[in-house]
Amino acid sequence: MENNIQRIPVLAVVGVGLIGGSFALAMKKAGLVDKVIGVGRGLANLEDALHHGVVDEITTDPASAIATCDCLMLATPVGQLSHLFPLVEKHLKPTAIVTDAGSTKGNVVGFAREHLKDRLPNFVPGHPIAGAEFSGAKAAKEDLYHRKHVVITPLAESSISAVAAVSAWWAATGADVRSMTPELHDQIFAAVSHLPHVLSFALVDMLANRTNGSLFFDFAASGFRDFTRIASSHPEMWRDICLANKSALLQEMYDYQAQLSKITALLEAANGAEIESIFATAREARNAWLHQKQQSLLK
Amino acid sequence: MENNIQRIPVLAVVGVGLIGGSFALAMKKAGLVDKVIGVGRGLANLEDALHHGVVDEITTDPASAIATCDCLMLATPVGQLSHLFPLVEKHLKPTAIVTDAGSTKGNVVGFAREHLKDRLPNFVPGHPIAGAEFSGAKAAKEDLYHRKHVVITPLAESSISAVAAVSAWWAATGADVRSMTPELHDQIFAAVSHLPHVLSFALVDMLANRTNGSLFFDFAASGFRDFTRIASSHPEMWRDICLANKSALLQEMYDYQAQLSKITALLEAANGAEIESIFATAREARNAWLHQKQQSLLK
Question: Number of folded domains in chain A?
Fold first, then answer.
């Protein structure tokens, strides 16, 4: 199997945190890479990465690493890609392959189309689904992607060989690799992750702003605790995710508001049968999902 | 202290499940009751209650127990109260005290005003906040209410001595007893319990009804799992709660829909600062709530 996977003489990882660092370690473990260059803005984290064997060389100059590498992993926050893509267009070797690890894809593809020009076929967007509590190069581990989902969202312009290589590299990390359009990717994560965060933040904010809000919290119990767990997430990070996935998230919010309007009308009409039917569909679907998750090897 | 609490020569408990049975056991443990009559529709559960020492006598005839008792605990599903209250009005001793354990209060008060007539002053509505995984007389335990909230919602017509007695009985179970209007009670539980259930059911049902719904569930992770935990709740029971608390729940749904409309408009306008401010308020309020819960003796 491994013989068929394209080797990576030089891998450059821009943003050597949990995600980029773990990709580098997994490529090393699979024996697919000869040298890893870590690129970042802060020397302290790069030196950590070097010290822990995550990378073999470090630099704060992206252009030099981009010019040298055969595979370029862009694992920075998505906001930095609009600055990095012009360097990729200018410096990347024509045979090199570029991928990213951004958690939204429509906006990344937009930046790529704007900046990559002749290098657009070299680019295969990706999203490894592996959040974790810890961050930074020190948190990187070679098995982070084992049994996790990785979504790639190839463009019509992406070269077939680049798509095959990026898929094979992710598969070599032990991940379950799925391919879909950037639009479907963004819709799925808007629905199952971004929307629930907004709904949870929205409820807690609504109660917190009441003059007698503390009375409400006083009687909140375990159902409330679990429903609002994601409202303890980082506000700035989730602001950025909402803005980055604005278009897909708005569509989910419109759909959800239509759903609430429907349920509100059923309750106004005291239509118990239809309300019970919605609740029963939800319970059945969730229990089936839980069952499948437990059966599956994926977490 | 105990000397000041009104004793209960005969306690009748209608509906000897977890809630009613645990109240009986707690009164026995506190030494406040001489005899407990268990009233129900099914002999099997009543015989369990007798066998486990939860009650001392059993009957399937509510009228006889109501005529005999000094304290009547109505711990049936709320739907049965409209049948029981006429019997209370007809048979209750003028000196006896009536309370209930229904999880909604506005509708119970409505039934009471309709049916209790001369016995309305004897009635003090209550709601012990102690859900549990198990049900039936066998699940009853004397310390179920220890460190739990119990809300009583006295009416203007309730006699002062009845209110004092019901408060003292609940306090003797180890509960933290709070008094408020039925309207505020219903609003609080609509906001912190019933609304989150509806929101969680609504999201899962929305995704389950999509033709490509399984794709969405495939990528749902731990945030989704916690947000939707309450969507695995019992559909029929939650239909009944929603209908029983219709008016307060509708008000919360209107407020929440206004909140979502506001956030949608902010996202349409890409107003990151305001979105972050809502998220930050929510996170701060939730973390403060969690901290207070952990500090408090109450679960």
Answer: 2
